[in-house]
Design brief:
Distance between the termini: 30 Å
Number of helices: 11
Order of helices and strands: HEEHHEHHEEHHHHHH
Radius of gyration: 19 Å
Helix content: 40-55%
Number of strands: 5
Largest sheet: 5 strands, antiparallel
CATH architecture of the largest domain: 2-Layer Sandwich
CATH class of the largest domain: Alpha Beta
Structural class: alpha+beta
Shape: globular
Strand content: 5-15%
Length: 243
């Protein structure tokens, strides 16, 4: 049984790695421009639950073995940020950090990170590293910020579904929680709000009035029984309503 679970996990990780890679290839058109890492840990115990990446194996082994998430400046920044950021985020400080002297050996000292904080106090990130200093790298990322953020959201949802499916049956006893139903339009509005768009920008993207966006947000807040839009986003992620 244990061997079956290990094989199943390996298959899932390889499948997710292919999905992320193929998606990013569509954006960059050049597999030599980047490498990526999806990383998820609980912010309470600072322990990495899942890493899906095509980073060099030697670096990943070091990262896991030595618990580098505790000193990785990218992860420390991601813990307090909700919006995507490039790294080094603060060149005057981070480039002098000993961690980047370690990662530079593997060409992993510059890139872009997308962040997600879910309702279970997990931090999930999608980091895309600029392997060879491609001059167009950041321009391409900026053009596809929303797509990359959505890739992180869908990847994290699949990972959490996989982990939850592996929970023992005994942990799933009791009444199933009520799952609020959001309309397709409400999901669209909440998604764009989750990637940092203002109500005016959401209105432009969806070709609706800003007042209509606010109307949808009020309905979402009421349906999810929360107090504000930010809480609604966290609650929607917890309930996996973005799928």
């Amino acid at each position: 049984m244990e061997k079956f679970l290990e094989d199943n996990q390996d298959f899932f990780i390889q499948t997710m790695k292919r999905e992320i890679k193929l998606y990013l290839i569509q954006i960059f058109r050049n597999t030599n421009s980047f490498c990526f890492a999806y990383f998820m840990m609980n912010k309470t115990d600072n322990f990495p639950v899942s890493i899906i990446s095509d980073y060099p194996t030697g670096w990943l082994n070091q990262y896991r073995s030595y618990g580098y998430q505790k000193i990785d400046p990218v992860m420390l920044i991601a813990c307090r940020k909700f919006s995507p950021f490039l790294w080094p985020d603060n060149p005057a400080i981070i480039r002098q950090h000993s961690f980047f002297r370690l990662s530079k050996y593997y060409r992993l000292d510059s890139g872009y990170t997308f962040t997600l904080h879910d309702g279970d106090n997990n931090l999930a990130t999608l980091s895309i590293s600029n392997l060879y200093g491609n001059a167009d790298f950041y321009r391409i990322i900026e053009q596809h910020r929303e797509k990359c953020q959505m890739l992180l959201i869908t990847t994290h949802e699949k990972v959490m579904n996989f982990l939850n499916a592996r929970l023992p049956a005994s942990s799933m006893h009791g009444d199933a929680p009520h799952i609020p139903m959001l309309s397709p339009r409400e999901k669209e509005v909440l998604f764009w709000a989750s990637v940092g768009k203002t109500y005016g920008e959401v209105a432009t993207i969806l070709a609706i009035r800003e007042g209509t966006v606010k109307f949808h947000i009020r309905n979402i807040i009421e349906k999810l029984d929360v107090t504000n839009a930010k809480h609604a986003i966290s609650r929607a992620m917890e309930l996996k309503l973005f799928g």
